[in-house]
Write a structure and sequence with these properties.
mainly alpha; two-stranded antiparallel ribbon; two-stranded antiparallel sheet; 23 helices; 4 strands; 72% helix
Length: 630
């Protein structure tokens, strides 16, 4: 059955995607997507019952897959080079040529590495990513069915591009599962590049000038990450003659040796995870349809980067390289949290928050202790459910009112109450105990406190300040959605999605975000092999959960009473009014009343803060490579 589970997880989505390419019937395409979601969920749960395990299914065994991986090392960069030449994009061309040169050197200039005996290794980390991809990713694909129909109606397309869209979307899930399960560096690299291709195609799906530009930005940045990945793999091949990932993450293998190859792999992971200063490709992905943004931010693309760093984490424990990586992750957490605070675009808030929380997971990888790795894995799972939920909610609300600006989303609860309440619950899950991300941050700080060297202490301060900024950001976000009717003019309305295929995934992800938040102590104990999940401070979580749920129920009742009350106009202190919603001010000018958040752009605006945070983050990544080289 192991071969069957793994085959379904990797091959079925690719086959279903190819089948959807030839389907013009929406009903047949929907049936394929729904069937794929069911198959992936069943196979992922089935695999979970067998973990931990090692296996060598025929299609992923090194004898079979290595030839495909070797071909992919040339084919993907060749396609990227073609795109770069076609669009006359210098950076895409340069990084594609560098990848081709590295592939040629690895093929003809180095001895082949020792054969990997076990092609698949399913430990807690691999299983976590497989479950995230198969469950969260599948729900996003289901949400995409009504969304893309509405999206294309809005664009007034004469010919639907949904067949291509769903082909890539479904294949993406299969490639991600293959990456999570691969125990061969070269096979892993092939899946890594496949995700770069998928993201490029999905971001540029609408084929507008902005979409094409954003797709090319994602392509050159992630191709640069591919250069670091291939360089690290070739150094490992030369230094150790190995491609077995499980063997390579043994700290004894690296005793007294340079960690430069692993530092290069970590930089590749940081690029893929949109860490500062490489966050621009993820921000550009917002031009894509919301299911693409949700998939890239929650369950696929960015998770590749943190998965790679967590996979290498045992070697980083107690090393200078690991401590610098912790500091780099903490820097992104702080910088991206501050940048999120200065945004009014709801998708941009989510994008910066994604980069920030992935920085927290990168910091866990740098610490490298079992406690830190467990905390990072728990954060990976909880972040996927919570951020997937928030992106779907923002996409649904955008369809309902025709805007994704937070100020326009004021009082959106009156138009889409289920979606708005789910978004509020998701945003609270990011900051309030005992739900989700706060539990993970608690575990991260606990892991960091066990290594009180100066660099780690600085990282802890950054994480604490970043968490405080995150609280302000999410309180503002949820408060705006729940606030009263805006005084200013309302944006143009479109019809909301409001179908079972929309609310079903949203409510399922909501249940997952809350449930996983509550299950965090058990997940943590399972990953650490501990008996009592509520030992120590974790025992406070059940009573905190009860208090939080009571507060939520009371809040809903208060909200219900407020929604029936008649809103009074603002008190103007006796100023004359020319018309409702305005007043006559200085020089007899008529001023329109408006309400809005304060974004403090002089402190949290992008131009200055991006430059400053990006320079510091880049310096840390250079120190990561330079320190390992020395």
């Amino acid at each position: 059955m192991i071969d069957v589970y793994i085959g379904l997880l990797v091959l079925w989505p690719v086959a279903a995607g190819l089948a959807s390419l030839g389907q013009r019937s929406p009903a047949t395409r929907a049936a394929l997507v729904m069937a794929t979601a069911a198959v992936l969920a069943a196979a992922a749960v089935g695999l979970a019952t067998q973990a931990p395990l090692t296996a060598s299914p025929a299609f992923l065994a090194s004898a079979t897959a290595l030839h495909v991986a070797q071909a992919a090392a040339f084919l993907f960069p060749a396609f990227f080079l073609f795109q770069g030449l076609k669009e006359k994009h210098a950076l895409v061309i340069v990084f594609a040529l560098m990848q081709l040169a590295l592939a040629a050197f690895g093929e003809f200039g180095l001895a082949a590495p020792a054969a990997v005996q076990t092609a698949v290794a399913v430990d807690g980390l691999a299983l976590a990513l497989v479950l995230v991809v198969s469950l969260v990713g599948s729900l996003i694909c289901i949400f995409a069915l009504p969304y893309m129909k509405h999206h294309e109606e809005h664009l007034h397309l004469q010919t639907s591009r949904q067949p291509q869209f769903f082909m890539i979307l479904l294949a993406f899930l299969g490639f991600m599962n293959g990456l999570a399960l691969s125990n061969d560096l070269h096979v892993f690299s092939a899946f890594y590049e496949a995700t770069t291709l998928c993201s490029f195609l999905l971001i540029g799906h609408d084929q507008t000038a902005e979409a094409k530009q954003s797709g090319l930005r994602a392509l050159w940045m992630n191709s640069m990450g591919g250069v670091f990945l291939h360089a690290g793999i070739l150094l490992i091949q030369k230094q150790h003659g190995l491609a077995d990932i499980q063997a390579l993450v043994n700290p004894a293998l690296w005793s007294g040796m340079s960690l430069l190859p692993l530092a290069l792999l970590a930089v590749a992971g940081c690029v893929k995870a949109a860490q500062l200063p490489f966050q621009a490709w993820l921000l550009g992905a917002m031009v894509a349809p919301t299911p693409v943004s949700a998939l890239l931010h929650s369950s696929t693309m960015v998770k590749v980067g943190v998965f790679l760093c967590l996979r290498l984490a045992p070697v980083f424990e107690g090393t200078t390289t690991g401590r610098i990586l912790t500091l780099a992750g903490a820097m992104t957490f702080l910088g991206a949290s501050a940048l999120a605070l200065g945004q009014s675009n709801a998708k941009k808030i989510l994008a910066y928050s994604t980069a920030a929380n992935l920085g927290l997971i990168i910091a866990c990888a740098g610490l490298g202790t079992p406690l830190a790795i467990a905390a990072g894995t728990v954060l990976l799972v909880i972040h996927a459910a919570t951020k997937g939920l928030l992106f779907l909610c923002v996409g649904d609300m955008e369809q309902a009112i025709g805007s994704r600006d937070l100020e326009d989303l004021r009082a959106v609860i009156a138009k889409t109450p289920v979606t708005a309440l789910a978004a509020v619950a998701g945003s609270m899950a990011m900051i309030l105990p005992p739900l989700g991300m706060l539990v993970g941050k608690w575990a991260v700080l606990e892991a960091a406190a066990a290594s009180p060297v100066p660099v780690v202490v600085i990282a802890m301060v950054m994480m604490a300040v970043g968490s405080a900024l995150g609280v302000v950001c999410w309180v503002r976000f949820s408060g705006t959605l729940m606030s009263g009717v805006a005084v200013g003019p309302q944006p143009a309305h479109t019809s909301p999605l409001s179908t079972g295929l929309t609310t079903g995934p949203i409510l399922t992800l909501l249940a997952g975000a809350v449930g996983l938040g509550m299950a965090a102590p058990w997940l943590n104990a399972l990953l650490l092999g501990q008996g009592n999940p509520l030992a120590g401070g974790w025992g406070l979580l059940p009573p905190l959960f009860i208090v939080a749920m009571l507060g939520w129920i009371i809040g809903l009742k208060v909200l219900g009473r407020q929604s029936q009350a008649r809103l009074a106009t603002p008190y103007l202190g006796g100023l004359p009014q020319a018309q409702p919603g305005s007043y006559v001010g200085p020089l007899g000018r008529n001023w329109t009343l408006s309400e809005g958040n304060e974004y403090a752009t002089e402190f949290f605006g992008e131009p200055k803060l991006t430059r400053l945070a990006g320079i510091v983050a880049l310096a840390l990544l250079l120190a990561l490579v330079g320190g390992a080289l020395l």
